[in-house]
Specification:
The complex is a heterodimer of chains A (about 425) and B (about 150). Chain A has about 425 residues and is of the alpha/beta class. Chain A folds into 2 domains: about 5-30 and about 320-425, Aspartate Aminotransferase, domain 1; about 60-315, Aspartate Aminotransferase, domain 2. Chain A is about 40% helix and about 15% strand. In chain A, helix 5 (about 150-160) links the parallel strand 7 and strand 8 (about 160-165). The two termini of chain A are about 35 Å apart. Chain B is of the alpha+beta class and about 150 residues long. Chain B has one domain: Sufe protein. Chain: A (Alpha-Beta Complex), CATH 3.90.1010. Chain B has helices spanning about 5-10, 10-20, 65-80, 85-100, 125-140, and strands spanning about 30-35, 40-50, 55-65, 145-150. A 4-stranded mixed β-sheet of chain B has the order 3-2-1-4, with helices on one face. In chain B, a hairpin with a 4-residue loop joins strand 1 and strand 2 (about 40-50). Classes of the chains: A alpha/beta (about 425), B alpha+beta (about 150). The interface of A and B includes residues 362, 364, 371, 381 and 397 of A.
Chain lengths: ~425, ~150
């Protein structure tokens, strides 16, 4: 199989080009991911569940293994050689993560357990210190439960309320509706850059500009954006940006909360413990400077180092080239799926990441998933932790295929052919 | 289709998925329980018309996968006319069937329900097959409520 493409400049969104497009050799990329070589029930694995979690390149696996085999020690405070090495590696991972999203300073990057943890951190720290009864948090109707429930929790504690901007029939954010809900009581906007359930790419710069006109800070859930497109938090001008390592080809258990320095400085710690203090007496404590203030306890050192390796790996390929390759896959998958009788794609936004959600007449998504699995094809079926969005589209669940840089048009063919089998089987 | 998949989606199950039996509301039901599978969003309501200890009528409505629809369809057909303890006993054997712990000699005693033997090979689908049965049991225990497959 020989599938190569050169990223045409026209495919790359303006303002996101970071260098000349690189040639994309998918076979070489596939060779970097050992799991792609395994077979499932005698068939080649076709992994299309990347929005749930992505597979790991050898470079990430090696980085984690190397750390445990050669450099493991607790970070900070240690005076011995290994602790210094571990601390340096951990700090370096933070610099890589900061560079990856173009943060102004490494200390604006707080390591978390993942996207959910990052949003909860902001909800508890920013929310508890800044929200009063009657204040409003503005989200959208296409959020993942992790960008809904943490706000519900803090609303229960503070008396603030959640407003949700409407979503159009195509699955796009209704910007007029959004603007109508933005008002003097709005204290924070929390919005996904890319919908995990239907792939919609939201106009974050526009959303941020509208919110900032009213001096409202914006949290961006970037979990589904970072694996697919270059992110520049300074260009977006968002106030918080959160993502997970494991969806970015890194380890589970680590993620990033980016926050603008001035905001993070104003926010109180959300957890107390070792590592986050400057001084402690039995009466009171003072806080360590950023980012340690938000990293109580021993952090996820090996995982952060693995995340750093994932960022290096992606940078070596280039996000613009990845975005271009995935657009080819998305367009091809959309075309092939449209040819399956009785199939309806849920979410037809003009700008999408490589996520395709669909329903098939008379066949429940779970049955689609089970039948495809028999062919070694891994997709996801269910509500994708976005029940309000499912309700919007009037479906209890969808089947979802999400593509990553290592997927190929031949895999799309296998996927579409298997869907044809499903349709025939249940008719 | 491979052997395992053929075992799961037997013709009887596909047929009951396409045209489920007893798919209706019982207007004068005296037991009504909603069953939810929060992981996949399956949601169905089981209606019973009890006459003392015996199940005079059983029906269901709702949305779900082929396994849960066919299971609800065959369940309502199987328990109609049975006493409460007969239905409980049937659920016990059915549950052992789909979890692969039923003595093979007992499979035939389940009649058409034996079509679900293939579920044992697909552990994530056990909840789909047993959802309507959990709702039935809650209904028999006289609690008009919501049951979840996560319990």
């Amino acid at each position: 199989m020989k599938l190569e493409t050169t990223a045409p400049a026209s495919d790359i969104r303006p303002g996101l080009v970071t260098g000349p497009p690189k040639r994309f050799d998918v076979e070489r990329v596939r060779g970097d991911f050992p799991i792609l070589g395994r077979r499932i029930r005698g068939r080649d694995l076709v992994y299309l569940d990347n929005a749930a979690t992505a597979q790991k390149p050898q470079a990430v696996i090696d980085a984690v293994t190397h750390f445990y085999a050669h450099e493991n020690a607790n970070v900070h405070r240690g005076v011995h050689y290994l602790s210094e090495r571990a601390t340096a590696a951990y700090d370096e991972a933070r610099q890589k993560a900061a560079q990856f999203i173009r943060a102004r300073h490494p200390h604006e990057v707080v390591f978390t357990r993942g996207t959910t943890d990052g949003i909860n951190l902001v909800a508890q720290s920013f929310g508890r210190s800044m929200l009063r009864a009657g204040d409003e948090i503005l989200i959208t109707g296409m959020e993942h439960h992790s960008n809904i429930v943490p706000w519900q929790l803090i609303c229960e504690q503070t008396g603030a309320v959640i407003r949700a901007a409407p979503v159009t029939d195509r699955g796009e954010l209704d910007l007029d509706g959004f603007q109508c809900l933005l008002n003097d009581r709005t204290r924070l906007v929390a919005v996904a850059q890319v919908s995990n359930a239907i792939g919609t790419l939201n106009p974050i710069k526009h959303v941020v500009a509208l919110a900032h006109e009213r001096s409202v800070p914006v949290l961006v859930d970037g979990a589904q954006a970072v694996p697919h497109l270059p992110v520049d938090v300074q260009d977006l001008d968002c106030d918080f940006f959160v993502f997970s390592g494991h969806k970015l080809f890194g380890p589970t258990g680590v993620g990033v909360l980016y926050g603008k320095e001035a905001l993070l400085e104003r926010m109180p710690p959300h957890q107390g413990g070792g590592g986050m203090i400057a001084t402690v007496s039995l009466e009171r404590s003072t806080w360590a400077p950023l980012p340690a203030k938000f990293e109580a306890g021993t952090p996820m050192v090996a995982e952060a180092i693995g995340l750093g390796a994932a960022v290096d790996y992606l940078s070596s390929i280039g996000l613009p080239a990845i975005a271009s390759w995935e657009k080819t896959l998305l367009d091809y998958a959309t075309e092939r799926l449209s040819g399956v009788e009785g199939l309806r794609i849920i979410g037809t936004a003009q700008h999408k990441a490589s996520i395709v959600s669909f329903v098939l007449d008379g066949v429940h998504p779970h049955d689609i998933g089970t039948v495809l699995d028999e062919d070694g094809i891994a997709i996801r079926a269910g509500h994708h932790c976005a029940q309000p969005l499912m309700q919007h589209f009037g479906v209890p669940a969808t089947a979802r295929a999400s593509f990553a840089l290592y997927n190929t048009p031949l895999e799309v063919d296998a996927f579409a052919a298997a869907l044809g089998t499903v349709a025939r089987m249940f008719r | 289709m491979m052997a395992g998949l053929g075992q799961l989606y037997q013709d009887l199950i596909l047929d009951h998925n396409r045209s489920p039996r007893n798919y209706r509301k019982i207007e004068n039901a005296n037991r009504r329980v909603e069953g939810n599978n929060p992981l996949c969003g399956d949601r169905l309501t089981v209606f019973l018309r009890m006459d003392g200890d015996s199940i005079e009528d059983a029906a269901f409505q709702g949305s779900g996968c082929a396994i849960s629809r066919a299971s609800a369809s065959l369940m309502t057909a199987a328990v109609k006319g049975k006493t409460r303890s007969e239905a409980e006993d049937l659920f016990d054997r059915f549950h052992r069937l789909v979890t692969g712990t039923l003595n093979p000699a007992d499979t035939q005693s389940l009649g058409k329900l034996a079509a679900f033997a293939g579920v044992a090979e697909f552990p994530v689908r056990i909840k789909c097959a047993s959802l309507s049965w959990h709702a039935l049991r809650a209904a028999l225990n006289q609690s008009n409520s919501v049951v979840s497959s996560e319990q």
